[in-house]
């Protein structure tokens, strides 16, 4: 039996980004990436971040994950300032980054082994949750791309994080496996009730999964160009006619008109 994460009394705002600025020095020249970013996300939302390559999506995720500190402004998760990485925010990248010398079970249990707090039941439940029962003893090289990514998902979910930070997590999968994994990701989000912040380049993926789609972009530095609520009920049908207008709206924010796609 899968249990949903218990919500703290009064818990609403999962993420609060206020006045965040960030940039990098390249060859001694400071290049701003994110300017005056303000964003709030409520607990349990699934937010998809879209934007052109290089606009700062991964940068924003790293700031939320606490892997970097913003040059200005502040970020709070569940009402607490982000000062570094934490077990409440798990990051998943395109690459599943499994340890080749650890089995599926050992990879899923990695964080628990590091902290010395092994919970076999939670590990088995996470493996079952992602549909990998029977493959506990498989080595990473014996897994398909989708199975490796499921293992990474189980590893991410094993300690019931409150927030999953996903940087193009399905970007390297073939088109059909990707559709299956989108359905799986949706199911996991419903069952585990975490807040998801996911970068994707796939507008249809965003519309299938997200409760909100945020488009980043701009010249010189990025800002939020649009923040679109996707009101279609779950379970969603990929061909839902209501997605047509939203898809056009998002693509035009990204600089593509219907004509330019022909
Ligand atoms: N460690 C770094 N040092 C210097 N510049 C960096 C660093 N990380 C990112 N940048 C710069 O920040 C900008 C945003 O990069 P980022 O990786 O956040 O983009 P992105 O929106 O995730 O792009 P993509 O869609 O291609 O993944 C880029 O111009 C990049 O050159
Ligand atoms: Mg990126």
From TrEMBL:
Keywords in alphabetical order: ATP-binding, Cell membrane, Membrane, Nucleotide-binding, Translocase, Transport
PROSITE patterns named in the record: ABC_TRANSPORTER_2
Residues that span the membrane, as ranges: none
Residues making up the signal peptide according to the UniProt record: none
Pfam families: ABC_tran (PF00005)
GO molecular function terms noted in the UniProt entry: ATP binding
ABC transporter domain mapped to chain residues: 15-246
Alphabetized PANTHER family for the sequence: ALIPHATIC SULFONATES IMPORT ATP-BINDING PROTEIN SSUB (PTHR42788:SF17), TAURINE IMPORT ATP-BINDING PROTEIN-RELATED (PTHR42788)
Annotated family: Belongs to the ABC transporter superfamily.
Name of the protein: ABC transporter ATP-binding protein
Native organism: Acetobacter sicerae
């Amino acid at each position: 039996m899968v249990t949903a994460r218990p919500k703290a009394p009064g818990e609403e705002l999962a993420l609060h980004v206020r006045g965040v600025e960030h940039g990098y020095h390249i060859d001694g020249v400071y290049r701003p990436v994110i300017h005056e970013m303000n964003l709030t996300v409520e607990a349990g939302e699934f937010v998809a971040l879209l934007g052109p390559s290089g606009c700062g999506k991964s940068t924003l995720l790293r700031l939320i994950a606490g892997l970097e500190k913003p040059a200005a402004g502040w970020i709070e998760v569940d009402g607490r300032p982000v000062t570094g990485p934490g077990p409440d925010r798990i990051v998943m990248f395109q690459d599943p980054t499994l340890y080749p010398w650890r089995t599926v079970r050992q990879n899923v249990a990695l964080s628990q082994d590091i902290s010395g707090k092994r919970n076999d039941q939670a590990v088995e439940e996470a493996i079952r949750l992602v549909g990998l029962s029977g493959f506990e003893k498989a080595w990473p090289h014996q897994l398909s791309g989708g199975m490796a990514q499921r293992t990474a998902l189980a590893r991410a979910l094993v300690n019931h994080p409150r927030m999953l930070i996903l940087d193009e997590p399905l970007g390297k999968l073939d088109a059909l496996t990707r559709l299956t994994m989108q359905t799986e990701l949706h199911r996991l989000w419903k069952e585990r009730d975490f807040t998801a912040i996911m970068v994707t380049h796939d507008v249809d993926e965003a519309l299938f999964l997200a409760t909100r789609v945020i488009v980043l972009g701009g010249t010189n530095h990025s800002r939020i160009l649009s923040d679109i609520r996707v009101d279609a009920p779950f379970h969603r049908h990929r061909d839902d006619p209501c997605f047509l207008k939203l898809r056009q709206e998002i693509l035009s924010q990204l600089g593509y008109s219907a004509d330019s796609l022909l």
